[in-house]
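Open question from group meeting: does this chain pack into something compact, or does most of it stay loose? Before anyone orders reagents, we agreed to write out a predicted structure and look at it together. Recording both the input and the output here so the notebook holds the full record.
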Amino acid sequence: MAVADELRKSGAEVSFLGTREKAEADLVPAAGYEIDFLDVHGIDRRNPLRAARAGFEALAAVGTARGVLRRRGVDVVMGAGGYVAAPAGMAAVLGRKPLVLTEADSHLGLANRLLAGRARRVCLAFPIEGREGDPYLVTGRPVPEAVLAADRAAARARFGIDEGERTLLVVGGSLGARSVNFAAIAAFAEREGRDFRVLHVAGRRDFAELRERLASAPYKEGYELISYEPNLGDVLAASDLILGRSGGSVFEFVAAGRPAVLVPYPYATADHQRTNAQWMERGGAATIVDDGALDPEALRAEVRGILGDPARLDVMCAAARGLAKPEAARVIADQVLEAAAR
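Structure tokens returned:
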């Protein structure tokens, strides 16, 4: 949607392809864009029957996607990976429409690997070994304008955070990162001695259980639990340090100039969350804690070691800002417009 906003500024008409079961079904119309739906699901590599069914669904969806492209008079298609990108990209290729791909992680996902050879441009969030030169271009990952424009004073006032009060943001994702969620409650609400605020965006899946646990925690004062925040702009602006996973959202962290303690999801495809985290760690803006070593006491020590050292925190904040690519959405939009013009 960040790229769509930039394209709209240039006078382009933009619509989306998505699935009814995913977040785009609500987020895209709420942002003022039209969306068409494909009946596709992710490939479950652990279940051959489900994987085969997903493959057949994707093939069938190519025809549906071609119909959408014709009906909407599409000039160019941008694929962002995921379930819909493969049939949408194949529809573009079969319909001789220019195709631009974007990759949010530190390796090419399945859809992008299948389509990269047919794309006019493949926009990479991270440099990827072996993916240099045409059609590849390292652009960074687009982030919402609200993340770039968020006002720290207004955000902290929204959450009742005093000036100078250090704040940890725990991000569990839209559904939730269960091990991170429960380790945070154990580390920062069930043990004494916390001298900073906590904003915890838990995700919907674990929220009820976490709320019950927090209600009985002895040190819950100054710990705010939130189910879902559609826009991370305010919670990022209000915080000083982040605890969370290391998916593509690491670019939102650095765009906000916020360092992080990252816990890579150990079952991510090609272990790309670890690679993402290592990119931020090498840049001096993060430390890494293994999911299997997510001990509450060790987590407390890690977070307190950063928040309790203003000089170290300032250096990590500066490093985060140095990694940011706030112009990514505009650069990708220009690539899409150029592909359409050609």
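Observations to bring back to the group:
The longest helix spans residues 48-72.
The longest strand covers residues 99-103.
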